[in-house]
């Protein structure tokens, strides 16, 4: 099942018709966490015009697993629009999970000051008051997102990373790193873990 979900995610446009099935799989609390996360991540290359309502429900449900909520949030933010950003602001304002709140807060804070050309459209869409509540910035204790861009004049590089903690563990549940190099107006993804 896991391999099939990853293949659907890699298919992108051809997989747009699978969004309802992916949503059902992601929302099924009796499915193993690994399968639920793979179903969420399968949305990564599916066009933004596809139905993402299941992701919004997962992100905004406070009783849902922290890792599931953060994964859903990240996939939603790949296709930002004013309605989504309004919902993110409202969810953040009422957030009861320190892990989810700290992650979303750190992500939005980093996006507001990023110099990554690929994130400029998202940065420009963010309303000034999107951060409606502050959370702890202790990355060794709470889930967090980091974004660093370096410019060399003829090109640049962007490194982003994420740590996702569980309320029941001192060790991170997942770690993500991405390195993208910008040369001559093109972006090359060199590393994604």
Task: Describe this protein with a few key phrases.
193 residues, alpha+beta, 4-stranded antiparallel sheet, 8 helices, globular
Annotate the secondary structure layout.
Blueprint: H1 2-11, H2 19-27, H3 33-41, H4 53-60, H5 66-76, H6 82-93, H7 98-113, H8 120-125, E1 144-151, E2 155-165, E3 172-183, E4 186-192
Helix pairs in contact: 1-3, 2-3, 2-4, 3-5, 4-5, 5-7
Give a structural overview.
The structure is a single chain. The protein is α+β, with helices and mostly antiparallel strands and 193 residues long. It has a domain at 52-137. It contains 8 helices and 4 strands, in the order ααααααααββββ. The protein has helices at 2-11, 19-27, 33-41, 53-60, 66-76, 82-93, 98-113, 120-125; strands spanning 144-151, 155-165, 172-183, 186-192. Strands 1-2-3-4 form a 4-stranded antiparallel sheet. The mean pLDDT is 90.
Structure described in brief:
Residues 142-193 form the Vitellinogen open beta-sheet domain. The protein is α+β, with helices and mostly antiparallel strands and 193 residues long. It has 8 helices and 4 strands; from the N terminus they run ααααααααββββ.
């Amino acid at each position: 099942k896991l391999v099939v979900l990853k293949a659907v995610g890699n298919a992108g446009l051809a997989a747009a018709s699978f969004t309802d099935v992916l949503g059902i799989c992601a929302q099924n609390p009796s499915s193993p966490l690994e399968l639920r996360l793979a179903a969420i991540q399968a949305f990564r290359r599916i066009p933004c015009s596809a139905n993402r309502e299941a992701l919004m429900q997962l992100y905004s449900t406070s009783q849902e697993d922290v890792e599931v909520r953060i994964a859903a949030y990240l996939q939603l933010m790949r296709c930002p629009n004013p309605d989504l950003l309004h919902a993110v602001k409202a969810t953040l304002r009422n957030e009861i999970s320190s892990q989810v709140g700290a992650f979303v807060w750190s992500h939005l804070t980093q996006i507001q000051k990023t110099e990554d050309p690929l994130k400029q459209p998202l940065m420009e869409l963010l309303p000034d008051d999107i951060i409606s509540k502050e959370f702890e910035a202790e990355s060794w204790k709470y889930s967090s997102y980091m974004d660093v861009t370096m410019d060399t004049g003829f090109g640049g590089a962007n490194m982003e990373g994420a740590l996702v903690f569980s309320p029941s563990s001192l060790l991170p549940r997942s770690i993500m790193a991405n390195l993208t190099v910008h040369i001559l107006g093109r972006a090359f993804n060199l590393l994604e873990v």
